[in-house]
Specification:
The chain is about 40% helix and about 10% strand. The chain is of the alpha/beta class. The chain is globular and about 70 Å long.
Length: about 525
């Protein structure tokens, strides 16, 4: 869990484009400090704070990282004072939130809003069309969400990607238009590269050669053959990154540069990926505990300095120690597939809805004003870093430059942050505004940006927009993918470990086509074409 919490903050350490920054508006424009405003529907102001003339209580359902009581969090207490809106919390642990959310939808006993809701496109379409989730665009366009409206106007793809086939927006995303990582990347153990005097591999063959040398030449120098060239947890952590070596942008549906939709598990590139991984397995270059170990077990191997190549959000999360520039981000390598490598880049927004308002809500206007604050500089600062004077203070307020304060009582700053704000360990609504971290970024943060720009951005492409299927299409796709996903994951493990010989590839392809893989491509090609034409 600690790693998850830390990883959640990585998103907020990336840089947002200047266009998005311009879209956020000034404090006066977004109502950050004004207390007088224009009165509107039912005593809800379109500008300024408090948002409501009379106290309002709203029920909110969210995921909870379990670090602190939300009722006593300084960020939420500050927001209540600012807005005049009191929240009653219906919280569920992260691991059981999905089940709880489904039960709430089924029971009809709804909260007034969902926060950090992880609303899948199918849920938005289904519960929106049923009237359980209400359309948000009316309130956005009528002036109750000026920050969100500016962002949508500056970035029409965001609006387009969260507008369902019936023309409504039922959920809001987390927006970060300059994000690079769609999943955590791969990292080399820099000590091993140095010990073997090796430059980063550029091709799959060079990668194989390097991993073989790791196995045979004792780069950790302890005289034991204990090095693990490549490790994984069920291949889930490396699959998407490695797919790029064979020209595939995503471990799910993706569209190529010509707009053609692909289901990767029936591509020629996937055969190349399986063949390579089986080769590594046979020669004991891929950890034979890959399909049985936990993330913590993998981490223990890293802390024992046994790993040469691994996945994580940052290398020190696995290897231990402090942030360091000694362990380079892996450069994707070229394979026998033409136009490789590629990199499935972050699409600039969350793939699922992070916020929604239900039909039970007594004041959607006030709720939109409340959530809109999180899409401003002031709101992003408050919910990401807490109130001024706790973990940070302004060094130069006019230019929005901050500096860290000592952590109260000592200890880890990130863990303390989890005690003061709900935005910890979960994907929440809002923006990544680069000004929020101005003055707080470290040399390590700058190095990460430089590694991304050199190695990933030039070959990056967002795999697939946030498209919506119709209710009928979604029902068909869900049923097909339920069986396909189970089958392809089982067969992946069998092909990689040699339980299923690669000679049976054609038989495998015949089977997944029988199970509807071509129909999946057809359904998503139609949705992608509709998205592309704005229909």
């Amino acid at each position: 869990m600690k790693k998850l919490r830390k990883a959640s903050s990585i998103v907020l350490c990336l840089t947002l484009s200047a266009a998005l920054l311009a879209a956020c508006g000034s404090p006066k424009e977004e109502g950050g400090s004004s207390t007088s405003g224009t009165a509107s529907t039912e005593g809800v102001k379109k500008e300024g704070f408090p948002i409501v003339d009379k106290p309002l209580t709203l029920k909110v359902m969210s995921q909870d990282a379990g670090v602190a009581d939300w009722n006593t969090m300084p960020v939420l207490q500050e927001m209540e004072k600012l807005s005049g809106i009191k929240l009653e919390y219906q919280l569920s642990p992260i691991d059981s939130f999905e089940t709880k959310k489904n039960l709430v939808f089924a029971s009809g006993d709804l909260p007034d809003m969902f926060y950090a809701a992880d609303l899948k496109p199918a849920e938005q379409v289904t519960y929106g069309s049923q009237g359980i989730l209400i359309p948000l665009e009316k309130y956005i366009d009528e002036g109750y969400a000026p920050n969100i409206k500016k962002i949508l106007d500056e970035h029409p793809d965001v609006r387009k990607s969260f507008t369902t086939p019936d023309g409504h927006m039922y959920a809001l995303p987390f927006i970060d238009t300059a994000a690079v990582w769609y999943r955590g990347p791969m990292w080399y153990n820099g000590e091993f590269l140095k010990a073997l005097n090796v430059e980063e591999p550029k091709t799959t063959e060079e990668l194989y050669t390097y991993l073989k040398r790791v196995k045979e030449e004792d780069p950790n120098g302890n005289g034991q053959p204990d090095e693990i060239p490549l490790t994984s947890v069920k291949l889930d952590d490396l699959r998407m990154f490695f797919f790029g070596f064979w020209g595939m942008y995503n471990e799910g549906i993706y569209a190529d540069k010509d707009g053609k939709v692909h289901y990767p598990y029936q591509e020629e590139g996937y055969k190349g990926y399986l063949t390579f991984m089986n080769r590594l397995w046979k020669e004991d270059l891929l950890d034979h505990e890959t399909f049985s170990q936990t993330g913590d077990q993998k981490k223990a191997k890293g802390e024992s300095n046994k790993l040469a190549l691994f996945n994580d959000y940052h290398p020190y999360f696995t290897l231990g120690g402090e942030p360091s520039t000694d362990h380079p981000l892996m450069t994707p390598v070229k394979s026998e597939i033409a136009d490789s490598p590629v990199y499935g880049k972050h699409p600039g927004m969350s793939a699922r809805g992070t916020f929604a308002i239900t039909s039970s809500n007594p004041s959607p206007e006030a709720t939109m004003r409340w959530i809109d604050y999180l899409y401003s500089y002031e709101g992003a600062t408050l919910f990401n870093q807490g109130p001024e004077g706790v973990l940070w203070k302004f060094k130069d307020k006019e230019n929005r430059v901050k500096e860290w304060l000592p952590v109260p009582g000592g200890g880890d700053r990130e863990e303390y942050r989890g005690k003061i704000t709900p935005n910890y360990g979960i994907l929440t609504p809002g923006i990544n505004d680069p000004d929020v971290a101005k003055g707080l970024r470290t040399e390590f943060d700058e190095w990460i940006d430089q590694q991304n720009q050199e190695k990933l951005v030039p070959i990056g492409k967002a795999p697939f927009p946030n498209v919506y299927l119709t209710n009928e299409e979604q029902s068909e796709a869900t049923a097909l993918l339920s069986d396909l996903d189970t089958y392809v994951k089982q067969m992946e493990a069998k092909f990689v470990t040699g339980q299923e010989p690669m000679e049976n590839w054609d038989k495998y392809i015949t089977q997944i086509k029988k199970m509807g893989s071509d129909r999946i491509v057809e359904l998503y090609q139609g949705a992608y074409d509709r998205w592309n034409t704005g229909k």
